[in-house]
Design brief:
222 residues; 2 domains; 8 helices; 69% helix
């Protein structure tokens, strides 16, 4: 393995060997070899030509996985701010549960808001101009997973609530009915509680938009 081959392998040392990665490695190596040979043909010595070929590409993150150069400081701060605002909304919308059997939920929402508030204030003190490559593809994947998991969770919770409320009626073939205000309130709160957790996938989904918002234009070897 020559020096340029070893250099290209080092660039991809943390990458899984997929067909996409292998094709990209071959393309980069071919370009570097061509650049080195062209410099040698111009009278540059081999060592200097090899060094210049290596300097033409110092990172490959921006070439893979939909990565983009991102203002990480601003992105993290806006993510913390969004999470804080959504936690406040969660706490406000959970207040009606104080009058049900789930009265601990609003207190948990309050503690979450305070914790995220402290985290947001701490995040504001971090370096605001740090720049790095972040994966937009991975962010979109996390968003899809978050919505899928929440959808399954909500469906299971609603199914359990309905089964507990109307299971015996269905079993004995009786018409479905709500016997009184207490059962109505119990049924409504049982559905309302898992519905409140929609703030989790909503928050996760907003991170993708913030990632696009904080994109920085630049070259891969900048």
């Amino acid at each position: 393995m020559n020096e340029l081959q070893a250099y290209v392998e080092a660039l991809f040392r943390h990458r899984r060997a997929t067909p996409q990665v292998e094709d990209l490695k071959e393309e980069i190596l071919s370009n570097m070899l061509a650049k080195r040979d062209d410099l040698i043909a111009q009278g540059v010595d081999e060592k200097t030509a090899t060094a210049r070929a290596k300097d033409s590409l110092s990172a490959v993150d921006f070439l893979l996985d939909g990565n983009q150069m991102t203002d990480v400081g601003a992105y993290r701060l806006e993510c913390a701010q969004t999470a804080l605002l959504n936690s406040i909304l969660f706490w406000i919308f959970s207040l009606p549960l104080l009058f049900t059997g789930f009265r601990t939920v609003p207190y948990l929402g309050l503690f979450l808001t305070v914790g995220l508030g402290i985290f947001y204030l701490w995040q504001r003190k971090q370096a605001p101009h740090a720049v790095a490559f972040l994966s937009l593809t991975a962010s979109r994947r996390r968003k899809k997973i978050a919505w899928l998991v929440w959808g399954l969770f909500f469906a299971v919770c609603v199914g359990i609530v309905l089964a507990l409320a109307f299971g015996s009626d269905l079993w004995f073939g009786r018409p479905l009915r709500i016997t009184g205000p207490y059962q109505m309130a119990s049924l409504a709160s049982g559905i309302y509680l898992p519905l409140l957790t929609i703030f989790l996938p909503v928050t996760c989904g907003s991170f993708t938009k913030l990632l696009l918002k904080n994109r920085k234009e630049g070259e891969g070897n900048a």
